[in-house]
Amino acid sequence: GDARVRGQTGVVSERRGSYPFIDFRLLNNTTLSGEIGTKKKVKRLLSFQRYFHASRLLRGIVPQSSLYLLDEDYLGQARHMLSKVGMWDFDIFLFDRLTNGNSLVTLLCHLFNVHGLIHHFQLDMVTLHRFFVMVQEDYHSQNPYHNAVHAADVTQAMHCYLREPKLANFLTPSDIMLGLLAAAAHDVDHPGVNQPFLIKTKHHLASLYQNVSVLENHHWRSTIGMLRESRLLAHLPKELTQDIEQQLGSLILATDINRQNEFLIRLKSHLDNQDLRLEDAQDRHFMLQIALKCADICNPCRVWDLSKQWSERVCEEFYRQGDLEQKFELEISPLCNQQKDTIPSIQIGFMTYIVEPLFERWAQFTGNTPLSENMLNHLRRNKAKWRSLLHKQHSSSRSNDHSGQVTGSQEQTLNEEETP
């Protein structure tokens, strides 16, 4: 596959690659590159027009002539939703519809303004918006899960966490900007397949990053490429921009699920020893890493209707990978076999081994705030619902057996589902 250098030499923004024997279009469903470029330019223009129209309304300025790109009622509802952006029941799917698929850009513009970052860092609004559009467009909308709506959801969660008193009392404008940027860009240009898939298909990204945090490194480097290309921070001292780039990398790399135990053990040690000093930049950065990790996997802690949608989306993405692996006679990855790995069993395992341990520690850090308690309550209720659905699946499977008994192969499958 090809690679492009954005901005300064040495930072590669890796573009869509190709597997040795797999046509990457199977993942992207894209057409000719020239046509894509034209479409992107049109999309970028329309996105800016939509934002310009919406931003005037958000400031209370009624335009002389409407662009008619968004219905006034939709804009009003989107504006109302933004006034409640710190609420945990914020419906990102609805917000994405109300903003005509521009949830990430609209949310980021609002949050950068709310947190005073535009004024503090003297950011140019047009340049800032252009950068946000670049980030949003670098997500693959055809991915069921790893798309710009997921990025917007993580960013909204991060905003909620940054407001937790235990953290908020110590955060600097740099901390807040890093937290929001990392949340927004943490999965940028995600191909819709996981790291083991890239390694076993000998994808150029796996070679580039020597099979270590392949996707996370790519998300980080792509983000730095766009930051430099946009020149958003070009007016800041070079030392500061270099520090921002490195800290962005440290935050995004923390989302690698393979490093989960490493962060949990460290967090447990800090909490048990009560030695977190949030006055120190190093400890604040560590808690920003933890906050981003929580935001990235907070779906099971949302209200059931939202949580269920995310669960179905992530499993659909897993199953698509499994179908690709089957098509090319590769071993099907764990959780990617639709015949064996059911949504309830995947979710119960994910909640039990990944989500619960992290969020229980987060609640301990925050001091069991209303938000932390709310998240844990949702998590427990959602897990109970998935267990109920799993039980119904098992009952249905048994009743469908012609002999009235569970066959040996069925029993084996059920046992595997119960121990994901």
Features of this protein?
disordered C terminus, 20 helices, mainly alpha, Catalytic domain of cyclic nucleotide phosphodiesterase 4b2b, disordered N terminus, single chain, 420 residues, 2 strands
Can you walk through the features of this model?
By secondary structure, the protein is mostly helical. It has a single domain, classed as 3'5'-cyclic nucleotide phosphodiesterase, catalytic domain (Catalytic domain of cyclic nucleotide phosphodiesterase 4b2b, Orthogonal Bundle). The chain is built from 20 helices and two strands. The protein has a two-stranded antiparallel ribbon with strand order 1-2. Helix 13 packs antiparallel against helix 14 and helix 18 runs antiparallel to helix 19. The longest helix is centred in the C-terminal third of the chain and has 31 residues. The protein is globular. The N terminus and C terminus are likely disordered.
